[in-house]
Amino acid sequence: MTIRYPWLIAFGFGLLHGFGFASGLSTTGMPRAELPWALLWFNIGVELGQLLFVFIALGLVWAFKILQVRWPRWVLWLPGYTVGSLGAYWTIQRTVMLIRGL
Predict the structure, then answer these.
(1) pLDDT in tens, 28-44
(2) What is this structure's pTM?
(3) Which residues constitute the domain of residue 76?
(4) Does 51 share its domain with 75?
């Protein structure tokens, strides 16, 4: 399904994240009428931040390629393991919070 309809998977994840942000913003005491605009501008800021990160990362990759920098294998694996570990930690943390809240 992810290969055939990647937009559907991205939409589903985006929708779930949007619900999470909306519930977080609703606990701040923000008036409900301002919530859609706050979510919109928050998401625009997140997207711009992600684009900036990608451009910086691509610039570094390009520079390292020109300089012919050779990295040890563990350095190439480190970002993936870091992201995976953080994702697992946050999933476990939030699952425990949900279970305790019930």
Answers:
(1) 887 878 878 888 888 88
(2) 0.59
(3) 71-102
(4) no
CB 42 within 8 A of CB 21: yes
Q: Kindly state the tokens that stand for 72.
A: 């040890």
**How many domains does the chain fold into?**
2
What distance in Å separates the CA atoms of residue 35 and residue 25, rounded to the nearest whole number? Answer: 7
Q: Which residues of the chain have pLDDT under 70?
A: 1-2, 102
The alpha carbons of the chain give a radius of gyration, in whole angstroms, of 19
Q: Cα separations (Å) of 20 from 1, 11, 46, 52? A: 24, 14, 14, 23
Would you say 30 and 38 are in contact if contact means Cβ atoms under 8 Å apart?
Answer: yes
